[in-house]
Every structure is written in structure tokens, then in C-alpha cells.
Amino acid sequence: MILANNITCRRGSKIIFRNLDFKIEDGIATIISGKNGSGKTSLLRIVCNLLVPKSGEIIWKGKSIYKNLEEYYKNITYIADNNCSKDNLTVIENMNFWKRLYGSKITYENFMKLIDSLNLREYMNQKVLFLSYGQKRKLELTRLIIEERNIWILDEPFLGLDQDSINIIGETISDHLARKGMAIFSSHIPVSISKKQYIDLDLHESN
Amino acid sequence: MSQIKKINIFILSIVSIAIRDLLIQYRKLVDIVSLLTFFIIVMLIFIFSIGPYDEKLKDIGVSIIWSILILSSTISTNKSLREDFDDGSFAVYQFAGLSYEFIAIIKIITSWILYQLPLIIFIPLTTIIFEMPIQKIYMLVVTMLIGSPILTVFSLIASAMMLTNKKNLTIGSLIILPISVPVIIFAVGAINADPEIYKAQLYILTSILLASFAIGPWIISSCIKISVKS
Predict the structure, then answer these.
(1) What distance in Å separates the CA atoms of residue A34 and residue A36, rounded to the nearest whole number?
(2) Do A69 and A6 have their domain in common?
(3) What residues contact B136, with CB distance under 8 A and at least 6 apart?
(4) Which residue, among A110, A132, A133, A112, has the nearest Cα to A124 in the 3D structure?
(5) Which of A80, A201, B36, B110 could cross-link to A34 by cystine, CB 3.0-4.6 Å?
(6) With an 8 Å Cβ cutoff, are B89 and A98 in contact?
(7) Which of A127, A148, A169 lies at the terminal end of a domain, its last residue?
(8) Last residue of a domain, one of A132, A148, A164
């Protein structure tokens, strides 16, 4: 479980949200909603300590994350709003790189199943440069399975995907939650996940 | 046992970053070729402006080569840091459990291999133009082997400082050029010195190399951290 305690976020001179408290429980998806510029990305970056909040702290396993930062990092998969796959490498090279980088124990069968389920098999040896936006996004989302982490932090994961892929990712997140995993993501698109809670940033807006 | 496994995973992840960087750059080989072309063209410009006087060229050939080396290290301020910053790869490295210091060390090694090693192999061939004695060419290669990692560290420091600055790219060269002055002084000094005393200059150059290795990765990593967290 992750607790966020009294978080205030400031970007430049403007305070985006003030005194935000929430908790991310095991097995329940946390969905962040809000207008453009309401601080969805900032909140996700604060949760994974890529952005330092003006005040407040994130508590994980009963301790502030600053006291156990390395261990906390080793439980996170963070998928940002831009794709970190490299244009000059093929799809399979990118995936193999993530696998080696994270020391993942994923088996070859599961790896191939993952590629098949997202319809990426025929593009396997294609350079990422030639993929469409949606395909790049799907490639990025394979990191969820490859990295085998417990806390999933996703920034607009469904943007640019077709309906089939949205359903598959939704199912993947549901499976992960059923295994006592944590998931927090921002999304405008309704997803079929049974256990979910919402954080509405519009209610915390401050002027 | 689990300790050994952890170390294995760690080494594997570091090596995978290095291999990937080399692979990406290998597929964009035109960058390196254009660097070498720049080198030749500037060298020819020097020769045309001085004129075809053998004696003069022999005297200042080494200085010309080292000046171009420093200039080329400013134009090749490598894009690998910027690309990783722009597409968010640094966050991926961070959550893989790698510290930014290690990433900086990997980047120093790979960008030395990519941007300086080709020059070290290539430059002795171009010295034919200057009709240098073999002893001088040998010393040139030795000073380049010691001096070029220093330039790599400096150019990486500059590009790490400029990660959030996307407009004024000249500032990068302004950071590199002044702090490269000691390198050129002692490198060219060592080549032109008498055989009895050249060692002193080489030792000073080596000490600059070790000092830059000692503080470089930490400067680079803290610059990256500041940019990522802004």
C-alpha cells in the first residue's frame, strides 16, 4: 500500500494542487482524472519520485520512500507519456534490451505470447521508426510484463490504442491486481476494470 | 549465492546499455563519417591558409591536429545523453536500479569509443600531409590516448549541463573550450619537448586524466538528476 500525505505540487510559480491525500491499495486500480493541466502527470511523477513535491511525502510499507529509495525503485514500472523505445532498433531488440536491463526472468514462451497478444509478431524485426503511433505505444506497454514489477505507474496508457488493445491492457491490469499488485494510472478512456477508485484532481484545484 | 546473482544482473544491465548505445550509433554511422570529414576539411583549410611551406607545416602540424581535435570534440557533443533525456530513458534506467553515476561512466566509455577512437585510428594516416618524423607521430598517438578521454568527459559534462536548454547550443562549446586549454598545452608540450623531459608533461596530462575521471561522472550524474527532476 502506498499512502500520499498532504501533497502540494508547484510548477513554476503556480500551485497546481494543494493538500492532496490518497492511498493506493493492493488489488484496487487507482485512476486519476482531471482536466488538461490539472496535474495528472505531475502527480504520477511525484509518486515515483521523479518530481519533488513542494510539501508532503509518499509513504510505502509504513516508511517514507526517501528512507528506502533503492528498494522502492526496484518495485516500480513507470511508463511515461512519451515512448522510450529507440527508433533505430528493431522491436525485438528493444524488448530484449528491457529484459536484460531489468534482469527479468520471463520465459521465451511468455515472451512470444506477449508479442502475439498485441499483434506485433509480423513487425518483430522491423525498426521502431517504421511503426505507427499506436504500435509504438503497445511496444512501450510490453514493459509492464517484461519488467515483472509490483507497482505499475502509467501515464495515459490507452492513448492511441484500438479497442482490442485497450481491452487486452485492461485485462492485463486486472490480472495484475488479482495477484495483489498495485496500479495507478491517468486516463480519459473508460476501462473495464472491476475494482477501481478515482482521484479527481479538479476537486483539489487551487488558484 | 543471491549476492552473486544480483551482481550478475547488475553487470548484465550495464553491459546491455553499452551494447545498445554502440548499436544505435553503428546504425547512424554517418555521424562518425561526418566527424572525420570535418577533421580533414579543417586540416586542409589550415594548410591552404599557411601555404605550401614544408618547414612551417612540420613545426606547427601537431598544434593544428590538436586544435582540430578539441574543436571536433565540441561539435560532436554527443546526442546520446540528450536522446535519453528527451524520450524518458533515464527514468527507465533509474527504476532498473542503476545509479546515475554508473550511467555516466557507461556514457563516457561508449562515447569515447564512438567519437574519439575513430580519430585516434584515423589521424596518424593524415599526418602524411605534414611529413612528420615517426617519433612525433608515435608521441601524437600516445598523447591522444591520454588526452582524448579528458575531452570526452568535458564534452559529456557540457551536454549534461545543457539537457534542459534547447535553444542556445553555443554555450556548450563555451564550456568545453576554456577548460580544454590545459589539455592542449601539455599534450602539444609533450610532443615538442626534448626526449629527456617529455615525461614530465605526460605525467601532468595523465594527472588531468585521472582527476577528470575522479570528478567527471559525479558532475555529469548530478546535472542529469537536476534536469530529470525539474
Answers:
(1) 7
(2) yes
(3) B62, B191
(4) A112
(5) A201
(6) no
(7) A148
(8) A148
Are B91 and A77 a contacting pair at CB < 8 A? no
Q: Which of A86, A147, A151 to mutate to test the interface with B (most CBs of B within 10 A)?
A: A86
Query: Do A142 and A172 reside in the same domain of the chain?
Result: no
Cβ distance of B87 and A103 shorter than 8 Å: no
Asked if A97 and B20 come within 8 Å (Cβ–Cβ), the reply is yes
- ipTM rounded to 2 decimals: 0.85
- Our CA-based measurement puts residue A116 at a distance from the nearest CA of chain B, in whole angstroms, of 24
The string of pLDDT tens digits covering residues B95-153 is 888 889 999 999 999 989 988 898 888 888 888 877 788 888 888 899 999 999 999 99
Tens of pLDDT, residues A58-87: 888 888 888 888 888 888 889 888 888 888
Q: Give how far A50 is from chain B: nearest CA, Å.
A: 5
Round to whole Å and give the CA distance between B103 and B85: 12
**Structural domain for B68, as ranges:** 2-228
User: Does one domain contain both A98 and A66?
Assistant: no
What's A46's domain CATH number? 3.40.50.300
Query: Containing domain of residue A50, as a range?
Result: 1-75+150-207
Cell numbers at A199, concatenated? 482521484
Interface residues of chain B, partner chain A, Cβ below 8 Å: 9-10, 12-13, 15-17, 20, 23-24, 27-28, 83, 86-89, 91-97, 228-229
**DSSP letters of B10-33?**
HHHHHHHHHHHHHHHHHHTTHHHH
Question: How many domains is chain A built from?
Answer: 2
Residue A95 and residue A58 share a domain: no
Chain B residue numbers touching A143 (CB-CB < 8 A) = 92
